[in-house]
């Protein structure tokens, strides 16, 4: 059975641990007390590398034995190739050396040094002998360019994960009234009018983030603008687009206005989750047809995290929210736990899908640094607080191949722990001191809470609802049925001077009176529409607010 090994990087140095549930210092790894610039694992977790400002070291994760040491004190980024044969380093641009990314064999031999001034997309591997900087493919062992994508103004690209054949998504921003677009290509077929596997054009895009699914069959593109010209959002405006390698494209329709906080693919590559909308935000799972499958309702959340096996989903609210986490079984769409991790700046799943780590790290928060390891049922199994004056900078799980940890049945009972759980307490409406001795009365809510609902046609959601939610739903249905029964049956025609509420136009016999009634109805309808827009979060103009009042 593979043993998990989290790594810690902070002001006290670099450590490699063994655990959970018990987390102890790795017996074969000597803690490096020097300040580390960066740490990384190879993709299968075999090797662990770090730079301490004096050199770059690579060790075996299993026994801590030294594999190689490089005299590269200014290294800021490290990356192993997928087959663990090559180590790539990046250091800040230096006018003397001019070469920032450097490729080394793990034996210590320098293979290639390249110039890459920007740190964004500094290097992306296709495999261990080909790399893709700035959409050119070049072998490490010669200066010959193997292939090149001839396209002007490419500002971003994303390489597909997994093995061959590799695919690449390319983004070109719009200009002079022309739309922006994203195209998908399969390496090495870059030329010709029909070379693109898919093409999606759109407006309102200052920048994009592109995310492939694990099977490299589709990519999600979130386009965003820096400024929302309507004034509805401080965060700009975002749209979400879908492209598949079979040529299908779509705009993902989100039913609630507001920013898109997070988009994440399920590890099974057949669905994705979007967290969006003005607070309280909605979270919805979509299938590959971009149809909603399940809506988690509204809540204080801005991030989503699938377990590595894809059977559990955590919806969380970090940053300026209180750290509430909702743990869901995504096969039964049933909530497992609702723990709370206030002041957390980091969240990640362990490779076995049983534990998560939350951490408070610098420089985001320079006080109360530390980390907690939880079982997904809400129990805290390990807790570590940094000593006074020390800072925690990074917590990183050792990765493992997918086959190491198969999916396990989901548990709903909290795992026993000496540290207990931190379930979120139910919030209560604030009552002034002068009214606290009086009986509680029904109060209006600032936001209307939306319950979860299964969006699949013909699926009954009652099984997953709580008893109270199910009771409230049945009350609403009974109330609606009672209203239908109380509707008056059509009676004899009313007098000509009487204004009716039927769908036919009212007549009073006086054309001037009919005109006034029609105008009054128009005003009432406009006021009702403005109220609906205000409830949905849209910012109204002063004259519109005055009209509502």
Explain what you see:
One of its GO terms (biological process) is regulation of translation. The chain is mainly beta and 549 residues long. Among the domains are: 117 residues, no CATH class; 80 residues, no CATH class. Helices cover 9% and strands 33% of the residues. The protein has a five-stranded antiparallel β-sheet with strand order 24-25-26-27-37, with no helix packed on it. It has a four-stranded antiparallel β-sheet with strand order 3-2-1-36, with no helix packed on it. Helix 2 crosses helix 3. The chain starts with 6 loop residues before the first strand and ends with a helix. The relative contact order is 0.08.
- For the report, how would you describe the main beta sheet? 5 strands, antiparallel
Cα(first) to Cα(last) distance is 67 Å
Rg from Cα: 29 Å
Q: Helicity, in percent?
A: under 10%
Q: Which regions are unreliable across 5 or more consecutive residues at pLDDT < 50?
A: 125-138, 460-464, 494-504
Q: Order of strands across the widest beta sheet?
A: 24-25-26-27-37
Any idea what the shape is? globular
- The proportion of residues in beta strands is 25-35%
Protein name: Eukaryotic translation initiation factor 2A
InterPro entries: TIF2A, TIF_beta_prop-like, WD40/YVTN_repeat-like_dom_sf
GO molecular function: mRNA binding; ribosome binding; translation initiation factor activity; tRNA binding
Family: Belongs to the WD repeat EIF2A family.
């Amino acid at each position: 059975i593979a043993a998990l090994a989290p790594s810690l990087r902070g002001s006290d140095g670099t450590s490699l641990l063994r655990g959970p549930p018990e987390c102890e210092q790795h017996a074969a790894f000597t803690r490096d007390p020097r300040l580390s610039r960066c740490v990384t694992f190879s993709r299968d977790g075999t090797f662990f590398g770090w730079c301490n400002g004096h050199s770059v070291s690579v060790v075996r994760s299993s026994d801590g034995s030294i594999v190689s040491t490089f005299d590269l004190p200014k290294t800021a980024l490290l990356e192993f190739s997928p087959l663990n044969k090559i180590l790539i380093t990046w250091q800040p641009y230096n006018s003397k050396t001019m070469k920032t990314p450097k490729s080394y064999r793990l034996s210590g031999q320098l293979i290639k040094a390249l110039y890459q001034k920007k740190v964004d997309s500094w290097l992306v591997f296709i495999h261990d002998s080909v790399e893709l900087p700035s959409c050119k493919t070049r072998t490490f062992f010669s200066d010959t360019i193997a292939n090149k994508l001839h396209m002007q103004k490419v500002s971003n690209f994303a390489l597909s994960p997994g093995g061959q054949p590799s695919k690449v998504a390319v983004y070109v921003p719009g200009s002079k009234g022309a739309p922006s677009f994203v195209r998908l290509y399969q390496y090495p077929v870059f030329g010709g009018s029909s070379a693109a596997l898919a093409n999606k054009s759109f407006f309102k895009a200052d920048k994009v983030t592109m995310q492939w699914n694990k099977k490299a069959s589709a990519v999600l593109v979130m386009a965003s603008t820096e400024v929302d010209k309507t004034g509805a959002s401080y965060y700009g405006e975002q749209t979400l687009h879908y492209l598949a390698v079979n040529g299908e494209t779509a705009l993902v329709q989100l039913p609630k206005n507001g920013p898109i906080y997070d988009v994440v693919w399920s590890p099974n590559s057949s669905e994705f989750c979007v967290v969006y909308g003005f607070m309280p935000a909605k979270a919805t799972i979509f299938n590959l047809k971009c149809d909603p499958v399940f809506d988690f309702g509204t809540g204080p959340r801005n991030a989503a995290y699938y377990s590595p096996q894809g059977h559990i989903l955590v919806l969380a609210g970090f940053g300026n929210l209180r750290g509430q986490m909702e743990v869901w079984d995504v096969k039964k769409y049933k909530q497992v736990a609702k723990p709370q991790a206030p002041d957390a700046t980091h969240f990640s799943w362990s490779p076995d899908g049983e534990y998560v780590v939350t951490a408070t790290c610098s420089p985001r928060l320079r006080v109360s640094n530390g980390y907690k390891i939880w079982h997904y049922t809400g129990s805290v199994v390990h807790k570590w607080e940094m000593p006074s004056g020390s800072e925690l900078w990074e917590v990183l799980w050792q990765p493992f191949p997918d086959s190491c940890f198969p999916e396990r049945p989901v548990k709903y009972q909290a795992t026993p722990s000496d540290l207990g759980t931190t379930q979120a307490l139910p919030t209560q409406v604030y009552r002034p001191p002068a009214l606290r001795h009086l009986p509680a009365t029904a109060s209006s809510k600032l936001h209307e809470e939306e319950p979860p609902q299964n969006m699949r046609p013909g699926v009954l959601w009652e099984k997953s609802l709580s008893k109270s939610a199910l009771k409230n739903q049945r009350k609403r249905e009974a109330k609606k049925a009672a209203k239908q029964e109380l509707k008056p049956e059509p009676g004899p025609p009313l007098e000509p001077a009487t204004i009716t509420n039927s769908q036919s136009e009212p007549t009073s016999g006086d054309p001037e009176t009919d005109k006034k009634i029609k105008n009054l109805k128009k005003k009432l309808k406009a006021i009702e529409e403005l109220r609906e827009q205000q409830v949905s979060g849209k910012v109204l103009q002063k004259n519109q607010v005055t009209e509502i009042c």
